[in-house]
Design goal:
Three copies of one chain form a homotrimer. Chain A is an alpha/beta fold. In chain A, 16% of the residues lie in helices and 29% in strands. An eleven-stranded parallel sheet of chain A has the order 8-11-14-17-20-25-28-31-34-37-39, with no helix packed on it. Strand 39 of chain A pairs antiparallel with strand 40 of chain B, so a sheet runs across the interface.
Chain lengths: 343, 343, 343
């Protein structure tokens, strides 16, 4: 698994100016601190500048503003956006590191004769592709995946192991769907009838745009009547729950364990912190940032950052404050009464 | 996938009085607002009554009280409970929409010779059914499911893909188990021994009643000594965690991401909002409603709605209030002191 | 499934002193209360002592301090740590109760010729083991598991159904990995570039120590550059999320639905309650206890118990207090003003 690349090849791939010997080879990407002479590193934020001079890294990705400081130290690749450069460098690395999928259909896979498998697609062992489903060119379907009837997987989209995509659901191009994801289970809908629940069958689908990444064991329910929609560029972390009829705007990111209840509409370019909950039927504007573990109980129509978390404390202090909190409204009334008495 | 049904057939199925032409055909279910001339709609709540007259829907499901108003507009089906009628209409739709399971055992499935497969059951590709397991009549076992030894799946119960049911666990009739559900993993039990954890093997099973629906990737642990029990009609959404020895009463519903810790006893007809947490060994009475994201830290013995969530605010306001909250008990003491001083 | 063991065999297995007839047989483990004459029970905490005399149990595990009280009642096994004895008794029971794995590779499994399968290992139906992977001696790989390229599963480690272990990841010896666990999905890393997210490929692995148990549908992401690490003896419950580059110290336990964000470092012997969230890049010292559903927003460098949960209340009371909470900082200012006015 040893990967070794020359600075020349890296600079060419990233499209930056190389200062230093193009033949020097690196075998590791790492932060400035702790870098070895075979590490390629990056300076993406001014706050790490103090670590530059003393770093043993073979080469550092830097911005034009850092060109001279970096050159004084040793080899460097100058890029307009070194953090983007770092991201692209990891992509170059991954091309060598990640085991490549084998194009073609594994002998054990069960493919309905009416399904369509695009050129260069890879269908792994024990995958099941149902009637009328379409797998795009160069797509990768991992072991034990289930693609339901008439579902569509876009070109170059990759599904890891044990992913299920329900009938009629679709994923765009270049998506990455991690292990155990369930797309298109029934939304949670019931009519109360004399103390029991009558099922409202979920007749919509899930439609997912291009360049969407979905973390492991995340669930995205099909819509009740219309569809559940993730627009282009959405990124969901692991164990996220997206209820029926939710719409998530383009390039919105949600960290792990977020729950979005049914029929919520979330704008584009939002960021939802880990463990946050968005209640049903709410609207979040574009560019809303929700802090981790906060609960959105009303629509938020203005961009900005919103929070709502009980501050953690040592247990004894928390117990006192939490007990008092249950009398808070009363305390306000008492304060008001005092204010009236005090001239 | 185009579904088209006549109003006559629909009225007959729902058992309501049809006002209008029985031969008119509809191809979509939808709300009054936005309905097209081929949409069948419903008026289930008086607050939407204002949308009735102007709706272009081909037909509207209404209650007897709305009979005349609906007839003045156009076709209608009159039902005692139009929302129940809507639910049954989605069920009729789903019969046409959902790809039917193929009865019989797929050639690739691995069925232990001592397992029993009921008449008309469907066992999909790559399913595994272990020794002594019983699959009821008309049950559907999806691809990549694993039914452990001596487990029992009731008649007409449907398991989607990648479901695992542990040895000795049982599910009643007409259940719906969505993708990735894990029933019967070990409960979380350890004895602390000199700084490490000694496993307490979990010897109970999971017993699930009739008409239970369980959402995608939800987990229900087996009991430690006795069983974990879900009674008839329980509905769990996605990514719910049910700890060992929990008992959930009949017709209780839990939304996504709820966690119920071990040995909690939850009554019948409860509703637990998304992301709520119920601590271990607590009791909830029948008909308790827990708001989303609330944490139940003590038993609740009276029906009613209970909440406990820090209100979300813009981040700057939250920071101020949260910081002050950590001094709340002290503020109360200061208020008391002031009260003593003020005549 | 009827298990029956003699008190003599049990005492020999547990290494304790038997008081009473070694030939008496028991078929059930249970608490003192409700014990039948064929139940073996235990007294692990003085608070249950009052139940001892009246219990109908065939035999009770007790500490030396309880020797006489127990002997006065009937049969007993005297052990230094009766709760550990109870744990070991469950293990003895499980040896008889749990269906044994069949050693050898199931005919349907797909094993790369370069993978290595240890002696006595069991590879179930439809398992997939990729190139260069190593499965240790006596390990158990359940149905529909996927072991990625060059991954390593330690000796005697057991994987239930539908587990996926990503390429290059490793699990130590005697581990228990429950159904649906995803080890080694990509960490959640993106560089923001002009309003969209550029993927930072995740180049690290997951390294898991010995004697680790991981609950159903839990996710452990691979590191970005370095590895994500779970040290020996860690116990994770179901639906836990461990972000990239997290390090969890030895013998730390996390209950269900915990989320740990990227690059957090959690000490040894910690206990994290169910539904708690630990934000990224934080440090928790050894022996820190986090109460259920609390949110850790700053590093905690001292052992102890920490909490932060809004107390639940009836909904009307909560609404009043929560509304007032949003004015809390202002209330403090008003209190200050009053204090200045009051002599």
């Amino acid at each position: 698994m040893a990967i070794e690349l020359s600075l020349g090849d890296i600079a060419a791939h990233l499209g930056g100016e190389l200062i230093g010997d193009a033949n020097v080879r690196v075998n590791r990407i790492g932060p400035l601190e702790g870098a070895t002479p075979s590490t390629i590193s990056f300076l993406s934020h001014p706050k790490y500048q103090s670590q530059l001079a003393g770093s043993a890294a073979a080469c550092v990705l830097v911005s034009p503003a850092m060109r001279e400081a970096a050159a004084a130290r040793g080899a460097a690749i100058v890029l307009d956006d070194p953090y983007l450069g770092f991201a692209r460098l990891t992509q170059l690395w991954a091309q060598h590191l990640r085991p490549p999928a084998t194009p073609g259909v594994h002998a054990s896979a069960v493919i309905d004769p009416t399904a369509s498998i695009g050129a260069g697609a890879s269908i792994a062992a024990f995958a099941v592709v149902d009637a009328g489903a379409v797998v795009g060119e160069g797509a990768v379907i991992g072991p034990h995946c289930h693609i339901g009837a008439n579902a569509a997987i876009g070109a170059k989209t990759r599904l890891a192991s044990n992913v299920s995509v329900g009938f009629g659901c679709s994923i765009g191009q270049r998506g990455i769907i991690h292990g155990g994801v369930v797309i298109g289970a029934d939304g949670f809908g019931f009519a109360p009838v004399g103390g029991r629940w009558e099922k409202i069958e979920q007749l919509g689908n899930v439609r997912i745009g291009d360049d969407v990444e979905i973390g492991a064991n995340t669930c995205i329910d099909r819509g009740a009547l219309a569809d559940t929609v993730l627009e282009d560029g959405v990124k969901l972390d692991n164990l996220v729950q997206i209820g029926h009829n939710v719409r998530v705007g383009a390039h919105t990111a949600m960290a792990g364990c977020v729950g979005v209840a049914g029929s919520a509409t979330i704008g584009a370019h939002c960021q939802i912190g880990g463990g946050a909950v968005v209640l049903g039927h709410l609207t979040l504007a574009d560019r809303v940032i929700i802090s981790a573990a906060s609960v959105v109980m009303r629509s938020i129509l203005k961009p900005g950052q919103y929070s709502g978390v009980f501050p953690i404390d040592d247990n004894a202090a928390w117990e006192k404050n939490a007990a008092t909190l249950r009398q808070l409204h009363g305390l306000r009334e008492r304060l008001r009464a005092l204010e009236k008495k005090t001239p």
